[in-house]
Amino acid sequence: MVKRVIHLILLVVWCCTATCSAAAVENDYYRLISVATSASPSHSRSKNWKPAPEGLALEVGGLAVLDNRRVAVAIRKGEVWFLDGVYDDPPKNVTFHRFAQALHEPLGLLKVGDVLYTAQRSEVTALRDTDHDGQADEYETVARGWGLTGGYHEYAFGPVLDRQGNLWITLNIGMGLPKLQLGRTIRDAPFGYVQARWRGWGMKVTPGGDLVPVCAGMRSPCGIGMNHAGDMFYTDQQGNWVATNSLHHMRDGAFFHHAEALASMNLEGSRITGVKQVPDGLPYPQALQQFEQLRPPAVWFPYKKTGQSVTDIMLDESEGKFGPFAGQLFIGEFSQSGMLRVFLEKVAGEYQGACFPFRSRFASAVLRLAQGTDGSVFAGLTNRGWSSLGTSDYGLQRLVWTGRTPFEIKEMRALSDGFELVFTKPAEIRSAADPASYEMRSHTYRYHSTYGSDEIQKQELNIDHVTVSGDGHRVRLRVQGLREFFVHELIAGGVRSRDGDELLHTSAWYTLNHIPK
Description:
The chain is mostly beta strands.
């Protein structure tokens, strides 16, 4: 306990030094409004804050937008609440109405027509109000069939709807399980791994009601989302077998990193076959060569530099109502109570791309994200179980674009000999064309069964030529020493806009799985 408190103090000092000044400027472009929290945030005016009703711990595990006045939240206590008046600014008259109860730790919420879906620990449940009295009176089991041992970490996340009508869920790996579990010995499971059925897998429920295992190798897959092309992704959190936080493209037969998910490899319906050995202790590029079923993340999130526990995935579908990043992904972050931004592209059939800081200093850990009908973004907060920065333990906040465009790196694309940057506003030509305005380095991680990984095989990179487009929106960096399956870190601290502004966030991290031909 003492070590945990010391860790939190050090985290607060480190993060405040890095983010407090940036957050003050971030607020000029993206303003936080506290709809309901456990305590008045220090960075908000009191008129912009409403406490949750006494006795209601609004520990948001699921979040769904209902209409242009209301959102629904699922809370860890096992209830679903409707909040009305959440778009008001300030939100003086928010009302709370309980819609459903007696659920087992729901960690997702989805609205489809008049039905709300949530993933409980043991099933996907459809909630309906058939008599229209404002309370769910029908709780239908839509899918079940994965295992539970009673372990604390056996979470189920979702569901999220794809364009074919499938409901996607992800299942947390069981942690700290005994060697003898569910009537079988450790020698009976592949590679000696013992997990409950389908733990560490991504599943989908078809429109016909079939539960289909799709992909595997997940540790703590807290976030699920769809990109603009309609492909499904999940986020994972650092731990054993997982070097740092990551974003993965879910598709049939893919294996990601957590080897204990292979305990279900031989079950009927498994899409993972033929794994003969699992390397342990190799640099990630070498592990990919030896482990043919292993698929690289689309994006690595370098630890602490971008956060410590990534969570939800939200596609900006606002068509510009949320600023200049329409079509990109936004990622919640738990420990540092923030949001990240991701630009993706596909090279050689594999997703890869860059992550950027976006918004810091939410009132608590950001677990769920949902885009409102006006383009603003709701953030469901809870730090239950783990420590996070912030002034509250839980709540709901709304992030609103002020209409001002920040000077940011909007896109970072891979080239055969470097990268292309696209800015949100025209850059001043002289600073953007100066190689001294940029720094680059690369690193990879170690694939092993122990917790996390340091950055390894680090290398400074030389930018030997810079070309700026005539309108100042694009810069091409020619970079020596690109390496596949390495993270390429960019710091563009010397670039200025034509207005003389510095970049709001100067850093980006590009996961280069393939160098374009």
